[in-house]
Amino acid sequence: MFQNRAVLIKAGSLLYRNANIRDLNGIKQCAQLYSSKSGETKLLTQLTQRIKTVGPITVADYMKEVLTNPVAGYYMSKDVFGSSGDFTTSPEISQMFGELLAVWVIYEWTQLGSPEKLQVVELGPGRGTLADDMLRVFKQLQHVAKDAVSLHLVEVSPKMSAMQEAKLTGAATSEGSDAETNPNMDDIPYRTAISQTGVPVSWYTHISQVPKGFSCFIAHEFFDALPVHKFQKTDKGWREVMVDIDEGDGPHHLRFVLAPGPTIASKVFTKDNEKRDHVEICPQAGVITQEMAARIEADGGMGLIVDYGHDGTKTDTIRGFKKHALHDVLSEPGTADLTADVDFSYIREMVQQRVCTFGPVNQNLFLQQMGIETRLKKLLTAQPEQHKDLISGYRMLMDPEQMGERFKMFSLMPKNRADGSPYNPAGFAIT
Fold first, then answer.
1. What is the CA radius of gyration of the chain?
2. What is the spatial distance between Cα 128 and Cα 143, in angstroms, rounded to a whole number?
3. pLDDT per residue as tens digits for the range 73-101
4. Dihedral angle of Cα 109, 206, 191, 322, to the nearest 10 degrees
5. CA-CA distance, 356 to 425, in Å (whole number)?
6. Whether residue 290 has pLDDT greater than 70
7. If we measure between CA atoms, which residue out of 408, 220, 430, 427 comes closest to residue 311?
8. How far apart are the first and last CA of the chain?
9. For residues 245 and 193, what is the distance between their CA atoms, to the nearest angstrom?
10. Which of the two residues, 34 and 190, has the higher pLDDT score?
11. What is the Cα–Cα distance from 199 to 309, expressed in whole angstroms?
């Protein structure tokens, strides 16, 4: 049975070792000999050559290469979603998820005065399923939205953008010219289309390329895939965790080590008053959310982040997934997904001067307040033959032990409504 990454229970903490093979958490490691190391990959060859040249690399650099290396990155050349991939996401489980997010967008747009144009900007759109479900609702609410909506997708993978276009337009992915299947990624936008619902769609490699204007930013399971720096508190102060070559008897060709002294990142991102002894910081998340906040402040709009994460309480969360199971982070780089819990307290700190933030609240609370039970009843009446799948999808989205409490909703909103009153978005009432 396929599972979502947040549903799988983490099997023990990561093992970090320095050059003397000493456990960084002070726990004595039992001696273990390995008859062979994990498999070698094209990306592993690149990484080992780089480390031999420049020395150990940061965990953030390692994660970036594993996920988005142009030649051998995990996301760059294949479909990784669904039962045939390595993990599944809420939009793939039930149409209700995307439908209710679309209702949220339209409601908040009207509360902010129904500006003439509404740019829906999705970061990391996956297969395009979420966007497709949302566009279907926008069409049904055309008497409200009229022709205001345009869709802007931020996607770095040519392969994934082609899949998204096929999903949104109804065209087969095998059709089209080479320019359509292998676009010039330097173009802005690098791909355009018209969806089946008549909405113009554009693709970009970075949020900064999206045109200015009133925008709703949607980031579903996007921030968890951004690279994180990892830091360990020692008796000499904060030290950054690095990735080095393991030429010993360890299970993999790579290993985690501690930097012998402070790094630029450890000086910039760690705090003397931090109570945790191990922290993960995602600078890229700060940059992107600051861009979102600046645009909301200047042009109007809102943002909705959906991900598994915490409010500044967790420590060691980076993990790998392959075929819906946990996979060692250092094993066969480029063949498995890497992910880390989102630190919502860090995002709040990055944007609080420009926008109001709400959450994180549990996904099941948000969906309940947005009317998922009512929507489920209507679907069961309209599609009785889908009863089993509809109930199964509902339970996975709402069950606290599955996605209901593991996934969090976090919103970025303007300081005030159109009428100047303080803002309080739908779905974020604490009961």
1. 22
2. 24
3. 887 765 555 444 444 678 888 999 999 99
4. -100
5. 10
6. yes
7. 408
8. 34
9. 45
10. 190
11. 33
